[in-house]
Every structure is written in structure tokens, then in C-alpha cells.
## 1
Amino acid sequence: MTLSELKNQAFIRSLPKAELHLHIEGTLEPEMVFDLAQKHGIQLPYVDVDALRRAYSFSNLQSFLDIYYQGVQVLRDSDDFFQLTHAYLQRAHTDGVVHVEMFFDPQSHMERGVSLSIVFDGIIRALESAKHKYGMTHRLIPCFLRHLSAEAAMQTLEALLPYRDHICAVGLDSSENGHPPSKFSRVFDRARSENFLTVAHAGEEGPPFYIREALDYLKVSRIDHGVGCEVDDTLCERLVQERMPLTVCPVSNVKLAVFKSMEEHNLKRLLRRGLCVTVNSDDPAYFGAYIADNYLAVQQALELSREDMISLASNSIEASFLGEADKFYWLGKLTACAYE
Ligand code: HPA
Ligand code: ZN
């Protein structure tokens, strides 16, 4: 790395930021997969860590999801979830993350006989520890797997209700094409009636009308990814008007071939059009880039200024589910960064 890149990296890390699109299961590094497989006596179809890392090469969303769902099989007890979450939070702290809104996939654990109490116990212990150690705040967002049925999602929502005090919003992830947001209208109606906020992946690989459906049927507070909005001018105008945040994951988009290269990514164009764009890591262990790496990658490839970096971090605070006082505090710190 050159001296100027090192300086940029330090600047990016110094910006207080919120990570709003992070699947905790996507932070499972190959080393941890092997450690946990050994702990539980699980035979892996890879000879070593390098072989597993070499398998992290994807042609689209589905090719990634196949490996991602295979990886979660090693998560069995609450200490596994603690270790996973703890490692991510430590790393996020060094990247300047002051607040995280974390996704997890309850169905990918429950279908293996791993109970919600195990999952919540491990994740929450780690989140509480990061709050204590770093002052890092958090929200938890369980997601429904959209390749499964709406009935399965409804059962999952009901199973989540005893944990409602730990849940801020519900989300929608997994294979997008063929599974429009409208499929989950009733589940999301129920979730909102239980006072949960809602978010949904839309416009990652799927068409712009999936983004409209997420807004109109699921009444989301944010669109996860959303980069597919660009081809629809009326939709873009609506997103600007409603100041609807997009949780963009640039390195993920390039690794899953949503864009051919980072130079072709539309983040800068969306930002210039006035959209509330944020930068996030999605599944950093699988895509080889945590949040600061994502900021750096877009800054370099799209020639973004330091002011743009501050705008992206400010958008992340604004788009978060933090209360007004916390938002005011962090936005004040970010304004000060502009004058340093
Ligand atoms: N898209 C859909 N589902 C996912 C993703 C994603 O980027 N990451 C983990 N599950
Ligand atoms: Zn995602």
C-alpha cells in the first residue's frame, strides 16, 4: 500500500460510522470454520483452510448462497455464535463502526435443530460485551429466507416473538429472483402489527419493481442493496423524495457479478442523484472486505472525495435506527471531521 493509501485508510477508519447491512453468518472466516468443525467432529469437504478460501469464488448470488449455507453448519452451540459475533465486532471497532444493525438467518439454524435460544444467547452476549468495551451500540434484525414459503416465514416470526425485546426490525434475504417481496406481505403486516420495523433486500439482482413492492407492500424503512433502481427514473425520484436509504455493499456487488468491476459500480451516480446511499460489507469473510475496505474500494475506483466519505458515513448514521439524540451526537462528530 502506498503512503497516500495508508493515510486514506486511517482517515476512513477515523470516521464514526454505522454498519447497516451485515449478515453475521457472513463473517465466518475459513479458519473459524475449521476450528468449529474440529470442535464438533464435523468432516468438511475441503482439505484445509486454503482450499476452502479458494472455493470462495462466485458467479452470482446463488453460487455464493450455496457455500454460505454450507458454512453455517459448523455453528452449533451458543459459544460458537458468541465467538463469531465477538470476532466481527472487534474487527468492526477497528474500522470505526460505532453502531451495528446486524442481520441473522434464524431459519438456517432452526432447520438444523439449533434453537433460537442458543442463537440469541451467543449473539447477545457478544453485542453486550462490545457495548461495555467500546460503547458500540446495536440493533438485531432477523431475516426471513425468501426461497422458503411465506408460511415458514410466519412460523419463524411467531417463534421470534418471545425474543421481541432483542429485535428491532425484520428483514428479507436469500435468493431474490422468483421471490418478490409481495410473497411476504402478510408476514410483514403481522411483523409491523407487533411493532417491528421492516427492511428487505431488493434490487440486488432483481428488477426495480421488487424495490417498489418492498416499499408498497412491506413498508420498509430501508432498501438493502437497491442498486437496481437506477434504470427506473421515476423510482429513483421517489427514493430521493422519500429519503429512502439504500444499504449498498460495493465489494459484494462486484464479487457476485452485479457489476463487472468497481469502476462500473453506480454508487457515485446514485449519490450524485441525491439518494441516501450507505456503504456496508454484507458478508465480509466471503467477499474478503470488511466495511473500511468497502469505503476504500469505492473511494479509489470512483475517485470520491473526503467530503463524499463523510457524506457516506453521515448517511449511515441518519439511516440507522438509533434515536435522535445518538444521531445528533455522531453527526456532530462527523461534521467536526470535515474541518480537521
Ligand atoms: N443477498 C441475499 N441474501 C443474502 C445475502 C445477500 O447479499 N447475504 C447473505 N444472505
Ligand atoms: Zn445482504
## 2
Amino acid sequence: MKDGLKIQFNGCPEADVENGPLAEHLTRIEKRLFARKEPFTGWVGLSAGRGETPSPDAERKRITVVAERVRKQCDVFVVIGIGGSYLGARAAVEIFGAADEAGSENGAQDGGSGRKAPEILFAGQNISGTYHASLLNSIRNREVCLCVISKSGTTAEPNIAFSVLKSFLIEKYGLAEARKRIYAITDPTGGSLRAEAAEQGYETFEIPADIGGRYSVLSAVGLFPMAVAGVDINRVLSGAERAASEDSIKAAKKYAAARKALFDGGKAIEVIEHYEPALFYFAEWLKQLFGESEGKDGTGLFPAALSFSADLHSMGQFLQEGRQIFFETVLNVVSPPGDLTTPQSADPLLAGRSMNAVNRAAMEGVIAAHRAADIPIIRIDVPDLSPENFGLMVFFFELSCAFTAYLMGVNPFDQPGVEQYKKEMKRILAETRAENR
Ligand code: PA5
């Protein structure tokens, strides 16, 4: 792994987070977070950065051992969950799956078993009958295991998906065998999923009580699916550990301070941009992390994510000339896992070029054009998409998000607003139950 993240601030202030006006406030926030005394700050200990954590090593070893068993048991592993119980794992699976297919040594590996990793599919992140019917059809004749992830155990989407997939499993294998093919990740003690797992004897992992969904990627929630996919979770965790270093914390503070300053200066939207399709779900996780953590009490930056260069052909016009209510954060992978050289028959300007070099020219061209339109741009360079850098990015963005939320005066760890639609949905379901419409 090459060295950490590099951040450049273009058209927005680079705060002096050691002696500037926000320095004291940021130090207070850092102390609050790293003390891990306040509710839902347990994720800070997952980086194991400050040596205060009671050793989570035993749990991590068990994750690896059980994952190895799963890899022998099935050729399709369906991960059921939504929001924080879904996006981190999906982000990792997409990144390392793409690296694997591009032939990079940073991809998901065979875990030493010599057996190809099961295909990882996802369910319960929507309530679409079409999606789930098609998923069932695609796995009918394959060897299947399920991993249901829900901290509360009561979320509607994973609940429905789990009930459907569990029935399918029981029908396919019989109850006793189905039980051996179900893995549950949930609250250590509370909730209906924990109770069912105990009753049915499913193998379980814990989502620690003091860690909320979107901050749980480095717990079993993200690590177990990653391990089944063949990702070396120790490498992920060692990267996360590096993100708790002094330099990395300073970088997170600078990023948070710039986001707050841009918000105070009238920017309502942060457009997160990347040039690697494999980062699509990482950007989705970022949207969730920032959106749910900051958007409350009438404040918060609205996080949007664009995948370039595709979205330059849909949103590029707005960015260049539309209403400037946004700033841009570019997530740039310096050495992507794969590359190709274009044939000589290509357009003369492109012939014989590395595709990554052309992609880089696109990024630099976009930055130059948008800067000419006076759009503030924060550029974050990640050296490569190694497991270490994945862990490092996860912890860096979690920390940056918590810093910004506290600077904005909101609690980064709750999501009271999400309950409103659930209440309405339940009311409508109750009203329409009799006619099943
Ligand atoms: O970040 C969060 O807390 C949420 O996005 C949750 O992860 C999401 O709502 C799923 O909740 P649960 O794990 O309880 O099913």
C-alpha cells in the first residue's frame, strides 16, 4: 500500500486546524469522540488506533474461520440488509470484485482455499417484488447461504426479504440444513432477530450496542461479507488503524472545516465525484453517512454523488453553468487496479494511450473547467484501492462526518427523521390490509 490520502483545497479555505479559530472546538470534538464515552461512539474503537480497545481479535478470527466455512458451503451468498447494514459491505464487494476481475492482487482472493469465492448478492435494500422474484429465480439451482444483517431486527425491507429467502431455503434444503446456512448479524442482546437466531441456532455476529448502522462497516457488518468474498480483513483493519494517526485526524479536521466553511458561505450541496465505476457504492455509502448524520434540525449539506465520466454527459451542463448551490469533492484513485492501452486504430489523440491516463485527463479537464467557473473543489487522492486504503477511507470519512456534524451543532449518530415515513407506511399498510392492495 502506498501512503495515505492527499487533500487539495481549490477555491475554498484550507483551515489551520491547529491554531486557527476552529482549532479548540475541533480538539474538543476529537476528545469527545476518542473517549468513546458518549452514546454511539464505539466505532472509533474499531480502528483500534489508540490502543484503548478491548482486543476485538478473537471476533475477527472467528469472522475469518466462519467465512472460510461459508466459502465451502455455497456458491452464492445473499446478504440481506439496508442502509448502514448494507452499503459498506456492498461498497467493498464492488471495489474488490472489480479489482479481482481486472487481475489486481488487491482483489478478493480465494482465501488460500483454492476455491473461487461465492458470488455475493444483495437483498432487502428495496421492497421491489420484481427485484426479489428475479433474485430467487437466479439462485434457484445454486448452493445458497444467507446473511441477514439488521441491528434492530425490525426494519421492514430486510424483514420481508429474509422471510422470503428463508422460506426458499427451507423448501430447498429442509429446516435443519437451512438453519446451518443462515448467518445473522444483529444487536448483541435485543431485537427479534437476536431472539430468532438464538431459538433457531443460527451462527451469529454482533453489531456492538454502541455502534450505529452507517458507522458499522469495520464491524462484522462489513467484515463478514468482505471475508466471504475473499478480502483480507486484517489488511482493511490495518488501513483503518492508520486513519486514526495524528496526520490523518488532522486531514479529517481540515476536510470537515472546509465543508463547514462552504456551508456557512451558502453552499447547500456537496457533489461527490469519482472516475471509477467500482466506487459507485462507496459514494452511495458516503451519501448515507453524510445525509443521515448531518441532515437534521434544518441544517446539513445535501450529499449528491456522480459517477464520471458517465454523469458528465447528464449533469456536466448543470455543474458548469447551472445555479452554483454546490461545491465538488473529487475522489481520485491515483493507481486504479486495472488498465488497457488503446489500439493504434483509435482516434489519433487517444491511440496508444493508457485508458487511465485518458481518464486522468478527463478529471483534470473537468477540474480546470469548473474552477474557471469559480466552483470550489476539494480533491482527495487515494493512492490505490487496496484493502488498507479501503479501511483508511472508511475511517477517514466517518471521522470527517462526525467532525462536521458537531461543528454544525447536530448529533451525528441519530436519525429521528427516518421514523416519520415508517409510521405513515405502517398506517397505510394497516388501512389496506383487508383488501391486500
Ligand atoms: O445508519 C443507520 O442507522 C441506518 O441506515 C440503519 O443502518 C438502517 O436503517 C438499517 O437498520 P437496521 O440495521 O436496524 O435494520
